Amino acid sequence: MVPKSYTRRVIDHNLSLIACHECDSLYRVDRIPESSIVKCFRCGAVLMDSKKHTLDTTLALTVTGLILFLISNVYPILSFDYEGQITQTILMTGVIDLYNQDMPLLAGLVFITTMLVPALQLVLLLYIFLPLRLNSIPWKLAAIFRFVKTFTPWSMLEVFMLGILVSIAKLATTATIIPGIALWTFSALIVILALAASRMNPELVWTKVSFKPQK
To answer: 184, 190, 194, 213: least surrounded by Cβ within 10 Å?
Structure first.
């Protein structure tokens, strides 16, 4: 049974077919006009969705996300003013504090889900979509794109942001909380990643793989 999260491609030299993820009907792949949708003749499921400027939009969102990610990790996210003493924290502070409190596994999990995975996601999306924008096929395109789709759910920036908001609510009665620039850029990063995921058209990538010249 074919998973509903993606569409299979069957490539046989010069013939490229697409299988409907609902009923497994096979169709010959052809290029479709921009801003058009191709549906299965038998069951009506969407086979191909060509969104206008999807490539440019995804690339722009990826570059924006990288900039926001760098700012979020360099500048303070919060400052605490307690009896005249100001303490600044960055995103990495939480990971370091958990490690120093003899919780290395939890520190590693927080680091992976809130820093490593988002960074890797953005870098690999740039690796994929920048060459495609320049009419080039990056090395191991299919494998890397599958890898990105596999580990993306491990990005849990929203959960981390929720933890930050809970901490602010608890500490607001004992200290003065000063939001840092990283708090705003981190919030914007969550939105940018969500937009990039919604605007990214996997069919565009698989089409590039399908029509790649055979060596």
So the answer is: 213
